[in-house]
Amino acid sequence: MAHLIREKKPLLARIRRIQGQIEALTRALDAETGCADVLMLIASVRGAVNGLMTEVMEDHIRHHVVDPATDPDPERARGAEELIEVLRTYLK
Amino acid sequence: MAHLIREKKPLLARIRRIQGQIEALTRALDAETGCADVLMLIASVRGAVNGLMTEVMEDHIRHHVVDPATDPDPERARGAEELIEVLRTYLK
Amino acid sequence: MAHLIREKKPLLARIRRIQGQIEALTRALDAETGCADVLMLIASVRGAVNGLMTEVMEDHIRHHVVDPATDPDPERARGAEELIEVLRTYLK
Amino acid sequence: MAHLIREKKPLLARIRRIQGQIEALTRALDAETGCADVLMLIASVRGAVNGLMTEVMEDHIRHHVVDPATDPDPERARGAEELIEVLRTYLK
User: Fold this and answer.
1) Is D36:A86 a contact under the CB 8 Å cutoff?
2) For tag attachment on chain C, is the N or C end more exposed, with fewer CB atoms within 10 Å?
3) Is B76 within the bounds of a domain?
4) Quick check: D82 and A35 CB within 8 A?
5) Residue C85 is nearest to which of B36, B79, B90, comparing CB atoms?
6) Which residues of chain C neighbour A85 with C-beta distances below 8 Å?
7) B1 lies in a domain?
8) Distance, CA of D61 to CA of D57 (rounded, Å)
């Protein structure tokens, strides 16, 4: 899919960071870290997965629906811009 | 932390499944899979992370707060049981 | 905003249902209903608010960005269709 | 349910605030306010419903499971305290 080729590098970097967080979680379990700390690590993985979701959705809108930066129709460009802003607020 | 020692094996198995899902996601990006499929893979990672969170919270309640199966106080046992049920419903 | 005028009636009906659920919640508190039941009522309000959010976002995409049913560009129509499908799955 | 009697007043005040937010949302739809503003109002209702959920769960833990402030067992008190903290972080 065209847009994911262009955006692949930052997305793979994001995924590698999530893998690093999951390895930290595995180590915390192995080291018998306190339960509250383990829960906070899991909450941070969840936040990172939500961030990845938002980024892929935003890329999808820009590359497969309407790119607010280049669309010739100003109303449609504004509609796409608003949609991206709401997704960022709502999915965080 | 005592409870995570006892529950470590199933939690590590859950984490390995999440790592497998993330590898599938990396391969999907490398193979330039369609964006909608990539988004569905990310949604499934998120579901699995929520499942892990719920399981660790439930283990925490059973082992560090009140275990409904063994607590001598029936009201408190029922309160803990209800809490676990609500977490399962709400965090899924 | 144009699209919300057209879609106003079903959205107001949805909001009235949420208001009804909140009144049921108030009555449950007044009647000193069990805590677990109150939590389930709150969870159902949350589900209904998520449903409203998804519907307004979907209407926004159709009316201010790209309507998959009428857009002359088939790739863009498909991109918008996929986006709506992912939002429905992800925000539920 | 005992704890909801004691905590009823602040919970009803919270619910009234949510009702006020929903009335603002209805007025925004009637006034044909911009879609992005309507979405932000819905997001704020959702945040308030999550806040209500967290408060009722926290009250439930304190009154029906373990109250960290008064429980004679320090380990159990700490377990309940950690659980409340995680819920506040995770459900916000």
Assistant:
1) yes
2) C
3) yes
4) yes
5) B36
6) none
7) no
8) 6
On the 0-12 / 13-18 / 19+ scale of CB atoms within 10 A, A37 is: middle
Specify if D82 maps to a domain.
yes
Token readout for A63 is 């590359």
Tell me if chain C has a CB within 8 Å of the CB of A60: yes
Asked if the C-beta of A3 comes within 8 angstroms of chain C's C-beta atoms, the answer is no
Owning domain of residue D29: 10-91
C-D CB pairs within 8 A amount to: 88
Using a CB–CB cutoff of 8 Å, tell me whether A77 touches chain C.
Answer: no
Structure tokens at D32: 């044909």
Angle at C65 between CA C62 and CA C71, to 5 degrees: 70
Return the CATH number at A42.
Answer: 1.20.58.1000
The pLDDT of residue B7 is above 80 = no
Instruction: Classify burial at C79, counting beta carbons within 10 Å of its beta carbon; exposed 0-12, middle 13-18, buried 19 or more.
Output: buried
pLDDT mean values, one per 10 residues, chain D (92 residues): 69 95 93 86 93 93 95 95 90 72
Contact B53 D80 (CB under 8 A): no
**Chain D contact present for A91, CB below 8 A:** no
Q: Total structural domains in chain C?
A: 1
B85 reaches C (C-beta below 8 A): yes
Out of A52-56, B66-70, D30-34, D84-88, least confident range: D30-34
Asked if residue C35 has pLDDT above 90, the reply is: no
Asked whether the predicted pLDDT for residue A1 surpasses 60, the reply is: no
Q: At residue C3, does pLDDT exceed 70?
A: no
Q: How large is the ipTM? A: 0.82
Chain A residues in contact with C86 by the CB 8 A cut-off are: 57, 60
Question: Above 90 in pLDDT, residue A32?
Answer: no
Distance (Å) from the alpha carbon of C27 to chain A's nearest alpha carbon:
30
Structural domain contains residue B51 = yes
